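We examine the record.
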Amino acid sequence: MVEREIALPEPAAWSDLDSAGAERWATERGQPRYRGRQLFEAIQRRGIADVGEMHEFPASLRRELAARAPTRTVRERVHLVSKRDGSEKVLLELADGAMVEAVSIPSGTAEGWRRSTICVSSQVGCPAACTFCATGVQGFSRNLSGTEIVDQVMYFVPRLAARRRRVTNVVFMGMG
């Protein structure tokens, strides 16, 4: 019996690929294996928001990547910033059109130590169906994938880095 590898389908988003998957994707399309490692490192370690920012890739490869799939599984629809404390609340659209919210909350101490807490959603809707809660009233649709949860955190990484900050805490918002 001859074993054949099954070709990988296009990812829903580049952030869906793990390191081995990114390498395999690259080699199946005639790229050197290291291009897959570069893709994985840029998205998962450096937190790039757009493959167009991957200047280690030729422009033609960046265009091809952008045409094949989005960088992340989430897309910003609304981004609000509190004038009072700098908290950021974002409405994110998932690949299937569902919407979730994520929040970045800055905080500090008397010594000036700053934290950046990211609150992420783990579900679309809520199964508890509390009548006093807008999320409960909308009903429960599904749990999020691991990549969709991580991509909520990664949404804030470049924004915080621009202010010389980083994610220090991650909490799950209460849904049900």
